Amino acid sequence: MKDEISLNRWRLVLGKYSKNHLDFSGGNLQYADMDMLLEFLYEREYGEDRGVRKDRSGSLDPSCLTVPEWITKIKEIFPKNTVEVLEKHALEKYNLKELLTDKSVLEKLEPNEELLKSILQMKHLMKGDVLETAKKIVKSTAEEIAKKMEQDIKVSIYGKLDKNRYGGIKSSRNIDFKRTIKQNLKNYNKEMNTLVVDNVYFNKRVRSHNTWNIIIAVDESGSMLDSVIHSAIMAGIFSKLPMLKTNLVIFDTEVVDLTGYIDDVVQTLMSVQLGGGTNIGKALNYCQGLMDNPHRTIVILVTDLYEGAGYANMYSRTKDIIESGAKLMVLTALNMNAEPVYDKGAAEKMVALGANVAAITPGGLAKWIAEIIS
After folding, report:
1. Of 184, 177, 148, whose CA–CA distance to 163 is shortest?
2. Euclidean distance between CA atoms 210 and 326, whole angstroms
3. Count of domains in the chain?
4. In the prediction, which pLDDT does 143 show?
5. Measured distance between the N- and C-terminal CA atoms of the chain, rounded to whole angstroms
6. 125: containing domain
7. What are the tens digits of pLDDT across the range 136-172?
């Protein structure tokens, strides 16, 4: 049985052109269905016209699948993580635009971050019902990402644990383990070798109510797409915190202020125009104009630092912001993996001018901000 499964898997790997030498065994029709679905996508490796080999003069192949049928069937047969890989390859490797321009197809796709990125890259192809369906996917996916980020951000921003004060929110995050153990030592059961806990003690969190201005400026060049998504979602979370006044701007060669839409992540993300040139100096100049109280302002510049308008102006604006008393954080990447590609020479110069430069996760950024405002 094990050998049979291995042979069938090898047959899937080798594809249908190996069937004269190695066909599916055991009468398992599921493998044949898998083969058909994989061929629908990966036969494109053989060239155009859905990958049909040019030396073939005829075919007894079954009727061709449509994209909606393909989407439906892969969800029935493959596990979720495999479905996501197949959808990603269809969009990114084989450019199956029908996945994002057909409402019935779009409704069947699994909402996830990769699909969100594809929608943002191809939204110019969408109209009417297709666009509305896409917006629903953007909303649900962004909300899912926000759930993962929000708790850590709020815990960091609301303040550090105050080890000298007790009786705080009864959450596992706030348990004072040292005091809880000490106060319950009298209940230690020697026979069971167990500490019986009557009372659990919690730390309080110190809240900062002094308003700080957070200005987030995001480079919308194509290479920054992951960071654009996380920056927009993070800005929305920040805007709900009473101790922060948050501005959000995006830029290429022009600057667009999205602060008015900061609590509408769909509007924010669908406003992004990926690609084009980059004028970081112009964006920093705009941010400087938003600073009412520089000593209580943090400017977060999200960019790969590849400046298209001349580095001298970017360095000059950086120096102005830092000398005003504001904090400047340059994020070469802001996502869950924090994997940057950036101009290292420019980064070194920015550090020399007094900026903080890092690739960081949203949680890491929240902790950095908390250190400053606490």
Report:
1. 177
2. 16
3. 3
4. 94
5. 63
6. 2-138
7. 999 999 999 999 888 888 887 775 434 444 445 566 6
